[in-house]
Structures are given as C-alpha cells and as structure tokens.
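[scheduler] slot 2 assigned
[scheduler] job type: sequence-to-structure, two independent chains
[scheduler] chain ordering preserved from manifest
[runner] begin chain α
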Amino acid sequence: MTDNVTDMPLSKLTPQQAANKASVSRGTIMNAIKDGSLIAMRDNRNRWQITTDNLSKWLSDRSDNASGTIRNPLSETDTKETSQPTEHAIRIAVLEAELNARDQRIEDLKEAHAERVLALERDRDAWKDQAQSLAKRPRRWWPF
C-alpha cells in the first residue's frame, strides 16, 4: 500500500504482521486491540490496520509493565520513521503545496461561481422585463 501523493509506503500492519514483528501471538495483539492498549483502525474492508508507531508505543508500554523483559524489535533501525526523518519533512512539504493549490482552486471556483450567478441574475431580469412589457400590450382575441 502506498500513498498516492508521494509514493511512500504507508507503515500499516495487519495483526499477524504486527505479531511477527513484536514476537508475540496474533491473539495477544487482538487482546491488546480489544482492551484498548493497542490502537488499531479498521480499513474499508473491515480488516484491522496497526501503524508501526502504535505498535512501538504498545511494546514500550508493555515492556515498562513487564520490567523490561520484552524487547522492542521496532526500536532498532527497522522503521523508516526513525531512520529517515527527512522523508516526513518532504512529505509534509508536498502535502502543504497540494493543500495550497487546492485552496487556490477553491477560490478560483468561488469567483467563477459568483460571476456566473451575476450573469444569470442579469439574464433573469432581462426575461422578466420582456415578460412584463408583453403583458402590458392589449390583447386581441380575434385575428381579424
């Protein structure tokens, strides 16, 4: 799965992938999701997705509770977030530029819409004037 803006891979894991990275069972991951200690989201196919940041946080919280007996495999240079923070800065800059372009596009569309509304109002008034002038003329019922 990649982000369409920057083609950077999104760091989302399935429960099984998270279990493999954390060296625990899938059931442990599911129990952590169920009790709320591990934050996970469901995708549009109703499958659990876990970010590596949330998994890392859960592992560090878990290791604090277990007196440091569980190692955190994500604390190594396994994730791109910790090894290359400039990628985030680049991605943020790209997204900001895209947001600014969309804001400008919205403003342009608002101006075009306002001009179109004024043109339609002028057209309506012209038709109204024509209808009123035709209504003031006397009617002849018989063609002769």
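[runner] end chain α
[runner] begin chain β
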Amino acid sequence: MGYGITRAKLLPRWTGRTAYVLAGANLVFVPSLAISSGASSAVKRPGMTCW
C-alpha cells in the first residue's frame, strides 16, 4: 500500500510513510504470534471458538 500511495501521488507523502511505518510495526510483532500462549489458552475456555 505504501508504495502505491507514494507513486500515485494522490495523497500527501506522510500517508505513504505512515503505511510503511505501520507495516514495519506489524512485522515486529509477527514472532509474538508464534510464541504467545494466548491462542492456546483461548481454546481451553468453554464457549470460546478459536479460528
């Protein structure tokens, strides 16, 4: 998204930079998805559905 926003020049430059920053922040938290025990504890709760 950031590349398209930057190249199209339809929005201000800060929107493209913000897209890059948010994408980087998302990548930083990817390992926590594999390490976190949050998903496994959600399965053990009665009435909870884990997709």
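[runner] end chain β
[qc] chain β: The radius of gyration is 17 Å.
[scheduler] slot 2 released
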